[in-house]
Amino acid sequence: IELVEEADGGSGSGKFQKKKSFSWAVYRHCYASGADGGQQHQLELAFLLDEGQGGHVDLGESADVFCTLPVQRAGLPFLLNAEDLELTTARGAVCEDSRRNLAIRDEALKAALAAHEACQELREVLLRALAPRLRSREGAADGPPKQGDDHSAGGGSGFFEPLVLRLLARLRSLPSLRSESGE
Fold first, then answer.
1. Which pLDDT score is estimated for 7?
2. The whole model's pTM is what?
3. pLDDT score, position 42
């Protein structure tokens, strides 16, 4: 993926373009959903591989949840594309009471854990992206952060916050994670 920024070169020299390239790994997850009669579905998780970026691209207000096209910012540690998401009429958010969307959220958690287990590089990317929340109490499974907190679902509805909280709880339970005291 290449992002292009335009900037004024100053001193009347016109504009120049600065390109940034990012490498992503895409993990495809296929599943059968009971929410719609056992049909086969697929979702993709995209993980930023560029270590120089700290495992994070500043997406600003850009979406990290897609239904082919961008839908909303949810504060996920990866990009999620699920073509079967049920969206609001204006396509600005997911329908939170949809059984299909609840199933997709559960499958996205399974996909993230499977990606974590399948590949050392994805494991490191995921841990790096979640490191601040893994070290803080805010990421604990004792309830979602308050709306507007740094770790809330990006100012969105919070629909995907349970996915992040369950992912954090699972990662904390793995023996590969050690506290600073060595426990």
1. 52
2. 0.73
3. 94
Q: Angle at the Cα of 87 (from 70 to 101), degrees rounded to 5? A: 100
Q: What is the pLDDT of residue 153?
A: 39
CA 142 to chain centroid, in Å, comes to 21
Q: Cα separation of 146 and 153, whole Å?
A: 9
Residues of the chain with pLDDT under 70: 1-20, 35-36, 51-62, 137-157, 175-183
Q: What is the dihedral of CA 175, 170, 124, 31, to 10 degrees?
A: 130
**CA angle, corner 143, sides to 95 and 172, nearest 5?**
105
Going by their DSSP bridges, the two strands 65-67 and 15-21 should be labelled as: unpaired
Structure tokens at 121: 């590089």
**Residue with tokens 């004792």, as numbered in its chain:** 142
Residues 6+ apart with CB under 8 A from 125: 25, 47, 48, 49, 55
pLDDT reported for residue 67: 92
Nearest to 46 by CA among 30, 62, 22: 22
**How many alpha carbons lie under 13 Å from residue 128 in its C-beta half-sphere?**
17
Phi/psi at 166 (5° precision): -70, -35
| Residue 14 backbone zone (phi > 0: left; psi -120 to 50: alpha; other: beta) | left
